[in-house]
Amino acid sequence: NDRIIGGLNRKSAEKAKSIYSSIVKGKITITDLNTAEMVKIMENTARDVNIALANEFAMICEDLGINFWKAKELANRHPRVNILNAGPGVGGHCVPVDPWFLNHEQSNLMKLSREINDGMVKHVIKILKKDLAGVARPKIAVLGLAYKANVDDARETPARRVIENIQK
Known about the structure:
Elements: E1 3-7, H1 10-20, E2 28-32, H2 33-64, H3 68-75, H4 108-131, H5 158-167
Parallel strand pairs: 1-2
């Protein structure tokens, strides 16, 4: 991936770039510290908002009896559309945390996206209760605790909250 480096000054940024370029194949762009931090927050907040949109689409499709995954696949054929995967919320050390750094009077969409994504655990539990109604002593296996595929990082994973609710 391309990288953004924010430096205290040009000299420190260039030094960081020379070190980083030995391990990074993508383009490295230098900017000031505040801009670099804002870029990272914007990237993670955009993912959170887009995941919330996918989650809302998934719940609407569920209510209407439409297969979200098929509708998403077809919608994403449009060259300017990229609907992300819906799921039990978001995890990791960045996406569910960074939008709160922008707790600003103009951040209504970001706050709402956090609420939607954080509320997905309750939605998953609601689906489980519905699907398991009438099953005496159901056994549930939870496969994968990481917050995304192909990583072993479980920080802020919604799977933990799902498990806690199941155990209750």
